[in-house]
Design brief:
about 450 residues; alpha+beta; Adenine-n6-DNA-methyltransferase TaqI, Chain A, domain 2; 4-stranded mixed beta sheet; 4-stranded antiparallel beta sheet; 13 helices; about 20% strand; globular
Length: about 450
């Protein structure tokens, strides 16, 4: 599917991926030297490159412990002991995540659901980590019931690899892309925490109102903003609230809908269908969506057309995950997803998103789940959410402060996606030797 910076419209399965956005390739950190590529890739097997060993039972875990603990599905906690050195590769050994590959730069503990892998001689751990990911080790699993992969199988897998100096350069090159993606995600987590802190201060703890009630100036705001808050509280159905602020349910303030509950057939060309599993980490992930026909898209859009600044929330599966739609291009359909039509009043979108993300609201939604085998949120439950409604003047100032934060989060998400696309495009060709590192660097420079 063709995607660029998260903007998605009608696409055809025959359309090729666009070139990376030049603006996000700056400062990626192309930090590796350009070796002389005289030698061809050599045929060998993983056992000649890596030492594989099963992990051990998980020790007691502590939140503030020193060493990361890895299971088949990645990081699962921390412990005060380690059983694998720095630059360890971790391979899922059994179960659903059999063949999954993870990497730890620091010493860590690998549990008995995984295999720890350490490189031999001068081979580069980063390169071999990417090689194992590229191999899709789940294809080598055995077992009719519980999927399993063992050391003997891994040792025998035949591969072609370059000399260690070239391995190191490739590993450093791809690692720089991953480091940048990680930094962007960490930055977004910090930005969201800042937004949540302000939301909590103003609309949960009511810090400005308490300050004025006690004769103090509210912290962190100018005189004009402080004047927008009252200096006393009054009783309401939600408890003590700032005087003059209103309480209502969602459907009286916002048009609340949901997407289709049918399963349109996949089409060769058309529009992406977004389900609950495609909303994660504060963004919509289009990577494994399928296309639906134009007519199906039009039928779904009659009820639940998504626009910029609408808020979506998952209703089935992993329930209650919200996201603000910040892309200009919104030509996709939704299934089993709640739709809050805040696009008509954008200042409400940030407020509603932060409310839905808050721990208090997550507990509220959890208590209203229905279903036995598969939990779900009903449209009725979404419409009946109780909302605190501050004056428009307060909401407008809040939105003015918060909007740039969310725009930056959106930009970072787009940059991270472009870098991931770049990595996923170049990695197979670098690993196979079809593309050499100087050529990859030239391709990147041509997009700048």
């Amino acid at each position: 599917m063709n995607k660029h910076n998260g903007n998605v419209g009608r696409v055809s399965a025959s359309v090729t991926r666009q070139a990376p956005d030049a603006s996000v390739t700056e400062n990626v950190g192309l930090r590796c030297a350009n070796p002389t590529y005289g030698a061809e890739f050599q045929k060998t097997n993983l056992g000649q490159l890596i030492t594989f060993a099963n992990g051990k039972s998980c020790p007691e875990r502590f939140d503030n412990a020193k060493f990361a603990v890895f299971g088949a599905n990645g990081l699962i906690g921390k412990a005060n002991e380690s059983n694998s050195p720095s630059n360890s590769i971790v391979v899922g050994r059994v179960g659903t995540y059999c063949g999954a590959v993870h990497f730890s730069r620091q010493a860590c503990w690998v549990t008995d659901n995984a295999i720890k892998a350490t490189v031999k001689e001068d081979n580069d751990p980063s390169y071999l980590f990417y090689l194992l990911k590229h191999l899709n080790l789940n294809n080598w699993r055995s077992g009719s019931g519980q999927p399993l992969i063992n050391q003997s199988t891994l040792n025998a897998i035949e591969v072609r690899v370059p000399l260690p100096i070239e391995q190191k350069s490739i590993g450093s090159f791809v690692g720089a892309l991953d480091d940048r993606i990680t930094l962007l995600r960490e930055t977004n987590a910090t930005l969201e925490a800042i937004a949540q802190a302000l939301f909590k201060s103003w609309f949960v703890d009511f810090d400005p109102v308490h300050a004025k009630q006690q004769g103090r100036e509210p912290e962190g705001m100018d005189e004009a903003t402080a004047a927008l808050f009252p200096d006393s509280f009054e009783e309401s159905e939600l408890g003590l609230l700032p005087r003059g602020w209103m309480v209502s349910n969602c459907q009286k303030v916002i048009d609340v809908r949901d997407g289709t509950h049918e399963s349109p057939k996949p089409a060769f060309s058309g529009y992406p269908l977004i389900t609950s599993r495609h909303i994660t980490g504060g963004k919509i992930c289009f990577d494994d969506t399928y296309l639906i026909a134009d007519q199906d898209y039009e039928n779904i859009s009659k009820r639940s057309k998504v626009h910029r600044f609408d808020v979506l929330i998952t209703m089935i599966g992993t329930v209650g995950i919200p996201v603000i739609v910040l892309d200009e291009q919104t030509e996709f359909a939704i299934k089993n997803i709640g739709l809050f039509k805040t696009s008509a009043t954008p200042f409400l979108s940030h407020y509603l998103y932060l409310l839905l993300s808050s721990s208090k609201m997550q507990q509220y939604l959890e208590a209203r789940l229905a279903g036995t085998t598969q939990k779900y949120l009903s449209l009725k439950a979404l419409r009946e959410i109780s909302l605190l409604i501050p004056p428009d003047s307060v909401m407008a100032v809040f939105s003015e402060i918060i909007s740039p934060v969310f725009e930056k989060i959106h930009q970072n998400n787009c940059e991270a996606q472009t870098l991931a696309n770049l990595r996923d495009t170049l990695l197979p060709r670098l690993i196979s030797g079809q593309l050499r590192l100087p050529e990859a660097e030239i391709l990147i420079k041509e997009t700048q």
